[in-house]
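Bug #2210: token dump truncated for MFS transporter?
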Amino acid sequence: MKSGHRLGRRFGWLWAAYGTSALGTWLAFGAFPLIALRVLHAGPAEVAALSAVGTAVGAAAAVPLGPWVEFRRKRPVLIAADLVRCAALLTVPAAFVLDALTFPQLLLVSAVVAAADITFRAASGAYLKTLLPAGDLLVANARLESTAWSTTIVGPPLGGAALGLLGPVATVAADAVSYLLSALGVRATGGHEPRPEHREGARLRAGDLLDGWRYILADPTLRPLFLNTAVFNGLVMASEPLLAVLMLGPLHFAPWQYGLAFAVPSIGGLLGSRLARPLVTRFGRHRVLVAAGALRALWPVGLAFPGPGAGGLLLVMGVELGLILCCGVFNPVYATHRLERTAADRVTRTLSAWQVTTKASTALLTALWGVLGGLLGPRAAIGLAGLLVLATPLLLPRRDPACRAAADPAPDRTGRA
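Reproduced locally. Full output below:
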């Protein structure tokens, strides 16, 4: 990626807003599981349910928001989503101070945040496509990916220190403030945003709710990529609560060590995101997409084998480093491919459907793995998830879409002859 490639002031503000909220998220990394474990004295199944139920309800609530947002200007939606996340998270420290915090409240907050997160991600993809020409999208996505991993390097150690000194509730408050700052950053992007083609007062039809999924499943390259990311992300994230239980429970790692285990390997994500554009230039998008997607599947099974002490911590770091390096290459390439492959008037619905499915699959698998963790133990359940991840490269696109387009006329995905 060319360091001197300028993308303009408006992207700069959007980038800054993204970085601020990402840092806040990582400062609060693991805060909800820790609050459930140490404040509310929840068990492994309840910790898994916190991730699963909140995410599932949030995903369901976000389903009608995709088509609704499609026909509205995206910048106000982004600001509103940030403010909703801020307000929801602030209820946690408020309830804690009043000694009124409950497990159902954590579930409700996680659901609201999940719905707002899906809406924000879908709208931000559409907004990015209006800000930049297609040729700059890979550069922009690589910078956002690089920022995500940079905040991952800094956030968990700081969050771990804050957890030890101030407790998990304080880091939730810091996360809430980060969303407020993100809203101010999005507002500062300014400029004129094109009015969506559909009139803003248009009525939402029931069929609109499925448009995103229809669009994805009709596309021969988006469809396998969609299935791959949903299954891969779901399996990897399903093991995260169990890994937290394993490391903070039987292995007796301190919160700062748990944060460090994910912060240091994030250097791999920073490196991978910087390698994405040069690799695509040299080998082509399809080859990089398939190779990075296959290589990232090799690592998660290793998370079943850490022991106590420095050796176990180094093992987790090594596995996470390999996984994150491959994801750092894969993510900006796949995000760019997805944006370029999606028509401008379908971006929000398509990204919303994508996010809803990813969140729903993650919730379902997290709930299932919570049960498996209770039956088999955290280590065995993590190992099973890792073995299943090894099969996910079979879902990657097998053919280069550029070659497919040359061989076959592009189908009319609007449903018209």
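Output looks complete on our side. The first helix runs from residue 9 to 27. Marking as cannot-reproduce; reopen if the truncation happens again.
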